[in-house]
Amino acid sequence: MNQYKMTASARNVLFGAMGLGLVCMVLTWFGDDANHTRFWSNFLQNSLFFTMIAAMGLFFNAAGITAYAGWYTTFKRLWESYSMFIGVGLLFLVILGLGNYFGWHHLYHWADKSSVETDTILKGKSSFLNSNWYLFGTIIFGGAWAFIAYRMRQLSLQEDNHGDSSFKYHKAQRVYAAVTLPVIGFTSAAMLWLWLMSVDAHWYSTLFAWYATTSAFVAMISITILMIIYLKFNGYLSVVNANHLHDLGKFLFAFSVFWTYLWFSQFMLIWYANIGEETIYFKERYNNYPALFFMNIGINFLVPFFALMRNDLKRKAGSLVFVSILMLLGHWLDYFLMVKPGVLLTAQHMSHDMTHGHEVAEHASNFVPGFSMPGLLEFGTFIGFLGLFVYFSLVVLSKAGLVPKNDPYIEESMHHHVI
Q1: Are the C-beta atoms of residues 94 and 87 closer than 8 Å to each other?
Q2: Would you say 331 and 218 are in contact if contact means Cβ atoms under 8 Å apart?
Q3: Shortest CA distance to 216 belongs to which of 151, 300, 278?
Q4: Is there a contact between 264 and 301 (Cβ–Cβ < 8 Å)?
Q5: SS3 label, residue 1
Q6: What is the C-alpha to C-alpha distance for residues 75 and 227, in angstroms, rounded to an integer?
């Protein structure tokens, strides 16, 4: 079967997941502090996590086209469907940008004008860390990602529908792919500084954008493996074989090691330099979030390293499913650790000016629900966003053939074999 059709049971499960997420967000809102810090930090974490997964789907597809790669062609429609989610993620991030303007949330210390006036570091960064850059950078750069994703998807479908004996559509895809790599490569770094790194506004790291992007890339590969195995279990993607899964397993293994390299490099260099404005980031997480700090490296490095080191395990669906689920959850926890400590410190700062409602805990060393460790509401929100992402991807997937029959590399992919 080359045309995916969503079953009623799959739709009900995904609607149930989205419903659970919505209920958890509502409960978070009504049980939150006066600034709804927990709600907005959950919204930021999940919106950014799944938007970056979608962007990595677009990026990897573009990298494959630019490199004349053919091995992944039989399932590249998955990455095309992920990339279309960029538009949804962009909407969520624009809401966060509007929130900076209208005071809907207080996630970012630099968004508090009174703090900028009295803080030398924030004032020095204010030409970049400001509400205009956040909102219009999101609209312009995120809009460029969404447009490129849409055009590449359309060209792929036109290649399918009209044939491509002259390689007209594939050459056009190659042009867009060549543009995609530097566009996402440069703009994602700038936007990740704004969206994510500036949560800890006094801190900076030249490795941070690489680190956050690699985390999302590993999560994207994990979802791809899970989706392929799900589709094969339901009788689809028969042309995808153990060799394709083996290569995806190698990517999962390799980029987990690369993520660890970036984690260690960032931590070790900052620790060795012992510069106050750099060590503050790791000092906060090491001292006040030790369980999450060490769990992060344990799940995201040790599990894939030992579980996928053997060559034969990369061909076994059970092993890949187990590792992929842990990697998806592990890198969601990685984003949790990137977001929550900085947001909590900002909330503590803002709480001094609150005149109503209850304040957040005064010290990060105290246990703060939804910050010190993800609670049921955080996991429920994650399930809701995951359900939305998967549902959206499957709907896009159902609009065209699962296998791009006229792609010039389809035969190579169907006969893909590795030792």
Answers
A1: no
A2: yes
A3: 300
A4: no
A5: coil
A6: 10
For CA atoms 246, 247, 248, 249, give the dihedral sign.
positive
Q: Is the dihedral of CA 144, 147, 150, 152 positive or negative?
A: negative
Dihedral class, residue 36 (left if φ above 0, else alpha if ψ from -120 to 50, else beta): left
Residue 373 β-bridge partners: 369
The helix/strand/coil state of 369 is strand
User: How would you write the pLDDT of the chain (419 residues) with one tens digit per residue?
Assistant: 788 999 999 999 999 999 999 999 999 999 998 899 999 999 999 999 999 999 999 999 999 999 999 999 999 999 999 999 999 999 999 999 999 999 999 999 999 988 899 999 999 999 999 999 999 999 999 999 999 999 999 999 999 888 767 788 999 999 999 999 999 999 999 999 999 999 999 998 989 999 999 999 999 999 999 999 999 999 999 999 999 999 999 999 999 999 999 999 999 988 888 887 788 999 999 999 999 999 999 999 999 999 999 888 899 999 999 999 999 999 999 999 999 999 999 988 877 654 444 444 444 457 899 999 999 999 999 999 999 999 999 999 999 999 998 899 999 999 988 87
Are residues 83 and 223 in contact, defined by beta-carbon separation less than 8 angstroms? no
* Vertex 350 angle, CA 346 and 356, to 5°: 140
Label residue 367 left, alpha or beta by phi (over 0 means left) and psi (-120 to 50 means alpha): beta
* Residue with token string 């045309």: 3
Q: Give the domain ranges of the chain.
A: 8-414
